[in-house]
Amino acid sequence: MAMEAIVNMSVYGFGQMIEKLKASPKTIVLTEGSDPRILEAASRLLASNFLKPILLGNPEEIAKASEKAGFNIHGAQIIDPENYEDFDEMVAQFVELRKNKGMTPEKARGILKSANYFGTMLVKMGKADCLLGGATYSTADTVRPALQIIKTKPG
C-alpha cells in the first residue's frame, strides 16, 4: 500500500494528489491523539481542508495537550475507544474476522482498547478512509493490526 502511494505521487505529482483530495476529502484516523506531533498534523489538516482528522483518545487529555502545545484542533472529530457507541458492533466484526484464530468477544474487547487496533477497525468498518500511526507506537505495532484486519491485496 505504501509503495502504491509513492508510485502515485511520482506519477501524478504531489500537487495533483492534493487537488484530488480537495475534490473528494478523505477521513484519516490519527491513533496517537494527544501526541504534540499528531496535534500539529491535525491542526494543519483542518486548515488545509483536504483530509478530515479523527483523533483517538480521551477528549479531555487531547484538549489539554492541544492547548499546552498551542495547536487549534477545533473541528476535529475525537473518538474515545473507552466510550465508543458502536463498540459492540466493532467487537462482533473483529471476532468474525479473527474467529479462525480463536478470537472471543472478551479477548476482542481487550485488544480493541488499543488505539492501533481500534483505529484500524474504524477503517475496516468504513468509518474512516485511512490511518496514520507510529509517532509513539513501533512500526510492528502499527502494521500488525492492518495485516490482521485489512489484510494484503492478493498477489
Which class do the helix and strand fractions yield?
alpha/beta
Number of strands: 4
* Main sheet strand line-up: 3-2-1-4
Main sheet properties: 4 strands, parallel
- Work out the strand percent: 5-15%
Number of helices: 8
Q: Globular, elongated, flat, extended or rod-shaped: what is the shape?
A: globular
Q: What is the string of SSEs from the N terminus onward?
A: HHEHEHEHHHEH
Average of pLDDT: 90
User: Residue ranges: pLDDT <50 for 5 or more in a row?
Assistant: 1-9
Gyration radius over CA:
16 Å
Percentage of residues in helical conformation: 40-55%
Outline the fold blueprint.
Elements: H1 2-12, H2 14-23, E1 26-30, H3 36-48, E2 51-56, H4 59-69, E3 77-79, H5 87-97, H6 105-111, H7 115-124, E4 130-132, H8 139-149
Parallel strand pairs: 1-2, 1-4, 2-3
Helix pairs in contact: 1-2, 7-8
What does this molecule look like?
By secondary structure, this protein is of the alpha/beta class. A four-stranded parallel β-sheet has the order 3-2-1-4, with helices on both faces. It has helices spanning 2-12, 14-23, 36-48, 59-69, 87-97, 105-111, 115-124, 139-149, and strands at residues 26-30, 51-56, 77-79, 130-132. It is globular and about 45 Å long. Helix 1 crosses helix 2 and helix 7 packs parallel to helix 8 (139-149). 28% of the residues are buried.
